[in-house]
């Protein structure tokens, strides 16, 4: 049996603001064993009175020595996310344990086309896959369909705007699209996946991540388009207390 990962101290080395309620944290974790794009870790914070709380967060970037990146969205009335997004400063420490997960991953030796379907902050592990592809100079073609409420909620906006040969990005807005946007505001639909994704006959590897309702709806649409169930990998999240 595999040994359960141990808790390791992690120091905040860098912060980048993604949106008004989310930021990316680069942590230095001495002895980090490395990870595969799509995995996550457990993070634990300890208050001055000794109270501890832990949450799971997707890794936002591929393995880079002892450095890991997380992008955290603040959860209203949450215990952990408000500290990570508003209070924690460079030099502060938490504990992390991982990596965790082995199914929802992409490895650079893959050869099948890839379809990434993100709902809101579900973009995080998918961005790790995009970055891993770029770092490996892989020629596997990627298509990303990114569903979010409004233009201001986009994570990694500047990075996804840059030319990236082999990566096509489609945005779906569910509440307030940018001015002049041709597609009206609506939840992700069959046409979005048919036009922005790959034909089922190409046998792409499909990764869907987001809130539970979004993931179930997107997976059902992919099945309706003829994609094989074994090629649809899902990762969902729901209320955890933040």
Automatic annotation (TrEMBL):
Superkingdom of origin: Bacteria
Cofactor(s) needed for function: FAD
UniProt keyword annotations, A-Z: 2Fe-2S, Iron, Iron-sulfur, Metal-binding
Positions in coiled-coil regions: none
Pfam families assigned: FAD_binding_6, NAD_binding_1
All copies of domain FAD-binding FR-type, residue ranges: 5-106
Protein name: Ferredoxin-NADP reductase
Species of origin: Nonomuraea muscovyensis
